[in-house]
Amino acid sequence: SDKSYVKRIDFGGVFLVSSFLASLVLGLSSGGNIVPWLHPLPIGALSLAIFLFSAFVIWELRASQPIIPVRLLLNPTVLASCLASVFCSAIALTSIFYVPLYLQARGDSATNAGLKILPASVGTCLGGLVPGYLMKKTGKYVGLVVSSILLLVTGTGIFAFQNESTPAWMTCLAFFIVGLGYNAVFSITQVACVAAVGHAQQAVVTSTTYLARSLGGTIGITLASVLYQSSLDLSLQARFGHQPNAAEEIQRI
């Protein structure tokens, strides 16, 4: 019946993981930005995030229909695939979020910065098609996922060495490579996870890999924001700290 299906939904797990993410983002985004790190707000939010994550793990171990079967992570293939999804999502989405800001700070308009991101969409499409063809032809995926991760790292490495004289085509190429490696990793790890578990667990492991991707993007962008704000404050203090009213102006930024 409909009621029996509703009862099987892991509302407790959904609440705990959502609360964990909200607390983590609040703690990381407020510390050093809105209030000092030793303020009760970031300390309390991060402490609550640790508690909620622990409670989530315990809950998932006991739930009859968990949203993330923790025991599935004991499978080396599933664990490696989820970790790859978390870290690659953090790297790719942080790049796609912050590089356009850098381009605008360098003098590009919002339109030009957006146009330079377009190759990432092309790379993402190819990242979903090409790995599937190669896996079908070779029957292997370990080498493919390693190559895809290296592609992603190469693309972000190009971003790291950009300066005022970097040509537009190199930025577009970097976005293309990031998009290609980003989606290739997820396509391959998705297939690897499905192949590593039984038929009854395939739907669950699919949702687990998507959740890992979302977690990586959320946590990655939040941590990048913390590092960005901290480095910006230090740079502004070093360059303009001797100016009158510098502290107030830097705090406003």
From TrEMBL:
It comes from the Eukaryota. GO terms for molecular function: basic amino acid transmembrane transporter activity. Its main location: membrane. Keywords: Glycoprotein, Membrane, Transmembrane, Transmembrane helix, Transport. It is a multi-pass membrane protein. The keyword Transport applies. It is found in: Endomembrane system. InterPro entries: MFS (IPR011701), MFS_trans_sf (IPR036259). The keyword Transport applies. The chain crosses the membrane at residues 12-35, 41-61, 73-97, 117-134, 141-161, 173-198, 210-228. One of its GO terms (cellular component) is endomembrane system. Gene3D superfamilies: MFS general substrate transporter like domains. PANTHER family: MAJOR FACILITATOR SUPERFAMILY, VACUOLAR BASIC AMINO ACID TRANSPORTER 4. This is MFS transporter. The lineage of its organism: Eukaryota, Fungi, Dikarya, Ascomycota, Pezizomycotina.
